[in-house]
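Here is one chain, start to finish.
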Amino acid sequence: MPANASMEDFEALLNESFEIDTPTEGSVVKGRVLAVEAGQAIIDVGYKMEGRVDLKEFASPGETPDLKPGDEVEVYLRSAENARGEAVISREMARREEAWDRLEKAYADEQRVDGAIFGRVKGGFTVDLGGAVAFLPGSQVDVRPVRDAGPLMGLKQPFQILKMDRRRGNIVVSRRAILEESRAEQRAEVIANLHEGQVVDGVVKNITEYGAFVDLGGVDGLLHVTDMAWRRVNHPSEILAIGETVKVQVIKINKETHRISLGMKQLQDDPWDSVEVKFPIESVHTGRVTNITDYGAFVELEPGVEGLVHVSEMSWTKKNVHPGKIVSTSQEVEVMVLEIDTQKRRVSLGLKQTQRNPWEVFAETHPAGTEVEGEVKNITEFGLFVGLDGDIDGMVHLSDLTWEGRGEDVINDFRKGDIVKAKVTEVDTDKERISLSIKALENDPFQEAVGGVKRGQIITVEVTKIEDGGIEVDYEGMKSFIRRSDLSRDRAEQRPERFGTGDKVDVRVTNVDPKTRRLGLSIKAREIAEEKEAVEQYGSSDSGASLGDILGAALKRDDD
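Its structure:
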């Protein structure tokens, strides 16, 4: 029994020894370096098991392994024996398991981890986190895009774990989060020492279309293009360069967003303080065209002071024309100051006011009655427009085209480009209108014919046409019409047919209308006038004499 008992105890102790000393496959075990040869380390992992590991697995990327015989190391036992009877072990996998345990704890505690960028992959970089490989997206490398990541390769630096999945072996880290956090702390410290109105030195860090970012020593401020100079600045690169040190004034600080607005022009005298003294109303100055728009052109009078020449103030004669066809950018022009608004910082300028009003000049050199010659520029339903000296136009109304006929018919005889002569009839400088007359070049035949004829006068006319409503007569080439009711005092004699073409008839002038160019004539009016005159001279119906007696006496007197 004692012998049997001792054998059982020995067997139990032996089994216990096997269980304790025999490493488990798929776990991390401790081993001792037996030798270093041919770029490999021979490691004893116990229970007469040895394995080989490449030396490069004992160093981080870019480092040289420091390993010698007798050193204790941890390795991952993948298999107790391979085809050569050696244990299959890996230092890298051991480091990875160890690293994952450490990284999961850091991720849970939101702590930073150290690592080194060692490779470039699509969309970013690979980072060694002490045994575990993580992915660093390109957008998470820095707060701004990085063109050359060479200086960051192999450099030990902190990272923030954004996401990790041990089952899939995925880890995503960020370097930018660390930088932003440190920048936020640095910005808060710098901003705390700044105040509005303070003048500081800064370095131009970046230039955009709308301004420049200036580094104030750990914090950036925006220098907007409108605060760089009092004059118009089309692009910040006109006056700034990256890396240049500039003196700026702190205009505004937003404590919540940590945004800082800077200014350069605030350190210079405001030219608008002396605008009214330097540029009084109606004074003429030479300026440079800086910008052209649809509604006018901006002219720089001096650096920082610009005025607007509205399109309506650009030319006396060119109407509805784009300003770009009158002036060009950078052109030097003479302008007159029309109005100044210092509160709105606006100056109204005039370009045409530096030249005399061409209508006033024309009125002085071409008084009414002056004969002019010009080209027909346009033909409208109410007349002709004729080009005149001074690049201005005059208008010949339909009623001024001819003495005879209708203007609506005569205008069809004219064409654009025709050279015509006319007389000036009126110049209205306020309305910028010049009235011309082509018919005024000739004497008015109506005035020549009836110039001496007055209302109430008895004239002799010739019958030229017989109509139902009356007769057409001619006087010195001028046609008139005597209505049926005016052919006789006696209603029975108001018959047009009692006249013949070529008959000479005495008529009384009832109206002379130069506008309608017509004579009002009447036989009836002549008869009534003659009767009235006879009664006045030879008696009245009250004296007992009959009308026949009176007229007979009058006729006899005429015969004598």
